[in-house]
Design a protein that fits this description.
The protein has 270 residues and is mostly beta strands. It has one domain. 9% of the residues lie in helices and 24% in strands. The chain is built from 3 helices and 11 strands, in the order E-H-H-H-E-E-E-E-E-E-E-E-E-E. The longest helix is centred in the middle third of the chain and has 12 residues. The two termini are 34 Å apart. The relative contact order is 0.22.
Length: 270
């Protein structure tokens, strides 16, 4: 059994059992390469047949967590995984009840995180901050985000349809996108109440409307601005900037949270 990355500590994720890895080290077709055969990630961003930026590829988060003494392990987590608003001056603008909730969840080391319970982690973590890889597949009228964690997926419709007026709330909500120059602007509503934005327990409620602005800077880098307007949980709308990095010459692996899971019974909080 081959494993690409070390699993997160027990308090961050449950034990992962990976399938046999036939494509861990297989050259990605159609990507620009340097004379020595290595991927040229600084090459210009690709375009689709209709001239739009092509966001397709296998993407990883920015590993900006400080390294402990002795260096970083193979799998690091982004700051936003732990605290979605860590880069905002003053932090996220919580409503008083939300601030108290985050304090209580943090004191319990996030043991009630839906991801810890093998439930869906929500579309923002799935798309931009979770440590597992995600694959973007861009098609005419549709963009798919496929995720290793529980082989999850997200649909972003690019066919001109409007957002639903009274949607049935769901973990990933309902997403539509349109192009603004070289940026894809994605709007999402219909979000299930009670989601966690990060390991600290920052809430996302059913009142939230989320806008993402995805821009591929070059072949190997993508910049994502996320704006959350959730008056139920926050005193004002706020925006964070995230980064994704292309991972060439490998592919997704299946990960099933409940397979061989032994950690939940040992997560006792503080």
């Amino acid at each position: 059994m081959a494993i690409r990355k070390a699993s997160l500590p027990a308090l961050l994720a449950l034990t992962c059992a990976f399938a046999s890895a036939q494509w861990l080290h297989y050259p990605t077709a159609g990507i620009p390469r340097n004379p020595d055969g290595s991927p040229n990630l600084a090459a210009p961003a690709p375009k689709t047949a209709d001239g739009k930026p092509d966001l397709s590829g296998l993407w990883d988060t920015e590993k900006n967590r400080p390294c402990p003494p002795g260096g970083c392990p193979d799998q690091e987590i982004s700051q936003e995984f732990m605290n979605f608003g860590w880069g905002l001056k003053g932090g996220l603008p919580y409503q008083p009840w939300a601030a108290e909730l985050v304090k209580a969840r943090s004191e319990q080391n996030g043991k009630d995180d839906p991801g810890t319970q093998c439930l869906p982690i929500g579309f923002l973590r799935l798309s931009h901050t979770d440590a597992f890889y995600r694959k973007i597949v861009q098609l005419p009228g549709l963009l798919l985000i496929l995720h290793e964690r529980d082989t999850a997926y997200r649909q972003i419709f690019l066919d001109g349809r409007p957002l639903p007026v009274d949607p049935n709330p769901s973990w990933n909500g309902y997403s539509i996108g349109k192009w603004d120059g070289d940026a894809l602007v994605v709007e999402t509503n219909g979000i299930r109440d009670g989601q966690w934005l990060d390991r600290s327990g920052s809430p996302l409620t059913d009142r939230a409307k989320v806008t993402e602005r995805l821009r591929r800077l070059n072949f190997g880098r993508m910049e994502v601005d996320v704006t959350v307007d959730d008056p139920k949980a926050y005193t004002k709308p706020w925006t964070v900037k995230l980064k994704l990095f292309l991972v060439p010459d490998t592919d997704l692996l299946d990960e099933t949270c409940l397979e061989n899971e032994h950690d939940a019974g040992h997560l006792v909080g503080k």
